[in-house]
Design brief:
Elements: E1 2-11, E2 14-24, E3 29-33, H1 40-48, E4 55-60, E5 63-64, H2 70-76, E6 78-81, H3 93-105, H4 114-131, H5 147-161, E7 165-169, H6 180-191, E8 197-201, H7 205-211, E9 214-219, E10 222-227, H8 229-234, H9 236-251
Parallel strand pairs: 3-8, 3-9, 6-7, 7-8
Antiparallel strand pairs: 1-2, 1-4, 4-5, 9-10
Helix pairs in contact: 3-4, 3-5, 4-5, 5-6
Length: 252
């Protein structure tokens, strides 16, 4: 479904992502891990179109999308959630999701009346809010939500777009212990849809162990390891480059 071939980006003399080739398949959740500065978010930015590549290609469903800007990649089926929430803060929770639903439908609903268009969009948006447990906050401004609910709303926006590929960049960052299970439940539910491909950047190794079907490790912008979670975590080179850092953080 998604593939990168020799994907590379340079900032001056620094190579932040260095010829990374990797393929991601429907029905799998791949966790992308590595120490701070390894190139994980930069790799995500290259795939989703927030950054132009210096070299290499990005393919979606076999089609080369390397030259497409981020909005067109979204229309082709790439959904991206960021470390920092990307919402319309002055619009209501419901309106945020309705706009995403409307964007996905595009011109399909234009054959219906304006009133019916709006009614169908609202119904679909409310169903998404029910799924992420935000239905009771539908009329609240997005900016008024606590951080955890803003993260849930961002997941709702991706669900409303119904992409082929879901890209989560540290979805539990900054969330309280009580809020994390809701996000994990949403990702588990998405995993049940075997036609979807999920990429997850996450520092919390307990989350990675629980959700990932596969782990790839980036280190200094290069692909260090790729395989089943147990096999990758057991590699001495991975433990030296990454796992020790995580265990120290967990102990702290």
């Amino acid at each position: 479904m998604l593939e990168t071939r020799d994907l590379t980006v340079r900032f001056g003399g620094h190579v932040a992502v260095d010829h990374v080739s990797c393929a991601f398949h429907p029905g799998t959740l791949t966790a992308i891990v590595g120490p701070n500065g390894a190139g994980k978010t930069t790799y995500f930015n290259l795939v989703s179109g927030q950054l132009p590549a210096s070299e290499g290609r990005v393919l979606l469903g076999g089609e080369d999308i390397t030259g497409l800007p981020a909005p067109l990649r979204t229309r082709r089926g790439l959904g991206r959630a960021f470390q920092l929430t990307q919402l319309f803060p002055n619009l209501s929770v419901l309106e945020n999701v309705r706009l995403a639903v409307q964007s996905r439908h595009g011109g399909v609903l234009k054959l219906l009346s304006v009133w019916l268009d709006h009614k169908l969009l609202i119904e679909e948006a409310r169903a998404v809010l029910e799924a992420v447990r935000l239905a009771d906050k539908a009329d609240a401004p997005a900016s008024s939500l606590p951080h955890g609910d803003q993260r849930k709303l961002e997941v709702a926006l991706m669900m409303a777009l119904d992409p082929l590929v879901y890209m989560f960049d540290e979805p539990t960052a900054g969330m309280s212990v009580d809020e994390v299970p809701v996000i994990l439940d949403l990702i588990r539910a998405l995993k049940q849809r075997k036609e979807k491909t999920i990429l997850l950047v996450e520092h919390k190794m307990d989350v990675v162990r629980e959700l990932a079907d596969r782990i790839i490790v980036l280190h200094n912008g290069q692909l260090l390891a790729d395989g089943l979670p147990a096999d990758v975590m057991a590699l001495p080179v991975v433990q030296q480059a990454y796992m020790g850092v995580i265990e120290e953080e967990a102990a702290a």
